[in-house]
Amino acid sequence: MTERDRPQGHLGGVDRALPRGARPSGWRRETGGSPESSLDQAPPPDRHHDDLLAVDGLRIAHGDVALVDDVSFRIAPGERVGLIGASGSGKSLTASAIMGLLPDGLSAAGSVTLRGRELVGASERELSRLRGKDLGMVFQEPMTALNPAMRVGRQVAEALTVHGTARRRATARARELLDRVGLPERTARAYPHELSGGQRQRVLLTIALANDPALLICDEPTTALDVTVQAQVLDLVAEGVRDRGSALLFITHDLAVIASVCERVLVCRDGRIVEEGPVETVLSAPEHDYTRRLVEAAL
């Protein structure tokens, strides 16, 4: 797809320019001046040197069967990117590979780097240091991600203590963070089953953002929520990444959600990226037939 000029993004109802340093895939600066100028003689700059996340030729397979094949994309610091596609298109597997959480029996090849650090093939010890600190994730179903036998406040605090925060400070900080997402003080003493679906999703978001990660991954976090609660959670996601300067990879099949939260979108079909570009451009004038069908189905 030919890259077009990037429009301003939209975050929490306020138009926001592309974060400094972020560039669309395929972006290239045109240099002027005479043939003898130093700019013309200098080697071309590495346009990806400022990327926060770089995915190159990612392949996820079950034996000889490729489930995700040759997926490549980049996310700049502070950039908000959506990943859309039908169920089974490989969206969640891609996120799992980034987090190092692929199910048993699946293997990943290719390259995934976070700030230049290779994640594919990294040891569990290395990945556990990154998860929750540099990488945060909000899962689709909070009851499978939260410990049903542990009070909510302790789970938030544990996300902090595991990365070095003192226990007393972590306990106080957990209450502060829960308050920031609109949960009352008593929530810290509750068990997950005592909360509503929207409240549990807020707890997961609190845990994912507790250590101010460089990248937040949201995997269909609002699918099971009603429209009103969905809007509240989306506002909290947008506010959370904005306040921290975090980048966002938001996975969903809901084009309206992508339009409200993200500034750039990747379209996934059968384990491949078939189209990408600014949200406004891709959704208003899609070039790939699959993207056009997705847009038509959403109308």
What does this structure look like?
This protein has a single domain (50-298), classed as 3-Layer(aba) Sandwich (Rossmann fold). Helix 5 crosses helix 6, helix 5 packs parallel to helix 7 (197-209) and helix 7 runs parallel beside helix 8 (227-244). It has eleven helices and twelve strands. The protein is of the alpha/beta class. 34% of the residues lie in helices and 23% in strands. The protein has a six-stranded mixed sheet with strand order 8-9-10-5-11-12, sandwiched between helices. The protein has a four-stranded antiparallel sheet with strand order 4-3-6-7, covered by helices on one side. It comes from Prauserella sediminis. It is found in: Cell membrane. Belongs to the ABC transporter superfamily.
CATH superfamily: P-loop containing nucleotide triphosphate hydrolases
- Helix and strand composition category: alpha/beta
Query: What proportion of the residues is helical, as a percent range?
Result: 25-40%
Number of separate helices: 11
DSSP strand content = 15-25%
Task: Write a compact overview of the structure shown.
The chain is an alpha/beta fold.
Features:
11 helices, 12 strands, alpha/beta, Rossmann fold, 4-stranded antiparallel β-sheet, 299 residues, single chain, 6-stranded mixed β-sheet, disordered N terminus, globular
